[in-house]
Structures are given as C-alpha cells and as structure tokens.
Input
Amino acid sequence: MEIKPIAKIITDFPTKFGIPRQSGLVEKLTGEIIFEPEFQNPNYIRGIEQFSNLWLIWGFSENEDKEKGATVRPPMLGGNVRLGVFATRSPFRPNNLGLSCVKLEDIISDEKGLRLRVSGCDMMNGTPIYDIKPYIPYSDSVPEAKGGFAEKKKDYRLNVEADKELLSALPESKRELLLEVLACDPRPQYQEDEKRIYGFGFAGFEIKFRVENNTVILETIEKI
Output
C-alpha cells in the first residue's frame, strides 16, 4: 500500500523539542490543516462541521531515516526501561505513523485555500497529514479503559516561574500557551540537571528555560 499526504499542518513548533507529548494536553494550542491541491475540493470535507473532534493520522516525518527496532525506551519512564514499540506511543515506529485527537475550531476557505483550524495539537510545523476521520463519542470513548504506565503521568505538571516583563516579548495570544507548554515539562525525561539551560522554538521565538525543584524558570525569550 502506498499512501501520500492529503494535507500538512502549520503549528508554532519548528522542531520536535517542546511539543506536548500527547494531543489535548495543551487544549488551546492551535494549528491549521492546509489541504494539498488534489484535496482542495470542499466535497472531501462535506459534513465535517457536524463533528466537534477529529482523528488525524500523520507522519513522523523527521524519523524516516532513523533506525527502528522491536523495543523502545519511553521518555515517560525516564528512558531507562525497554518496552515493545506497539506497547508505547514512541515516534520510532515501523511505519512512522502518528495518531492525534484534535478539536475542530473552524473551516476556512479563502485565497489561501481550504483549511481546517484545530486545537489541542501535538505536531511539528509542516507535519504531513495522511488521513482525517471524525471522532465518534459513543464508540471512541472508553471511560473504563486501563492506561498502563501512562496513568502515572496523566496529572503531571510543573510549576512555572516567568517574569511578566519577559513574557511581554511574546504576542499576548501566545503567553498563556507558552506557560502551558512549559508546565508539561518539555525536557527529555532522563534529564534532571538543574543547571542545564534548555531551548526550543515557539511561535517565531527561541525560548530558553531551566528546571529547579520541579519549577520551570523562564530564562530568555528571543525573536528568531
């Protein structure tokens, strides 16, 4: 089977670092799905407005040339435990496919083409989208499901210290989003060096921070 992208998504993250590890963790993180020319026909999304949420099937495009194996080291477990790749959501997968549930915010059709604005994104800017399916609550939601090792992290958040003057370098609409992203702890889970400065791109800015006593301390925000 050969698959090709039907669209790409535009987000605030130019690289993988900093992206929430699951969709919906930062509910207000938005992205725009821009359909490829072949799929600009609005008939492809006729009726999609009836659904509040969508499943996106997308590609780990940065991992295509990376070595894959039967086991991986989930960051959620500190990178010290090996589990089967199919028992994790590791990005290093045989077919490089990701799955995210996002909220449909708007349908746009203008001179830029046909687009879907969605929220709860966990994808890098330019990520290829291979398919879109509606989320169906009565069949897709399983309240009694077991979450395995991921249950230990579902409520995990760090405190965030950020000087208001420093935050003012960002557009106002991006400030609370950045704080939410930082609270999700963007660091590799095996890194606990309190003196280390981490950095990632976000909304056209380079964000630098460190973590001390489970508190994120925002160091600098610089325009890229």
Summary: Residues 172-183 form the longest helix (12 residues). Helices lie at 137-140, 164-167, 172-183.
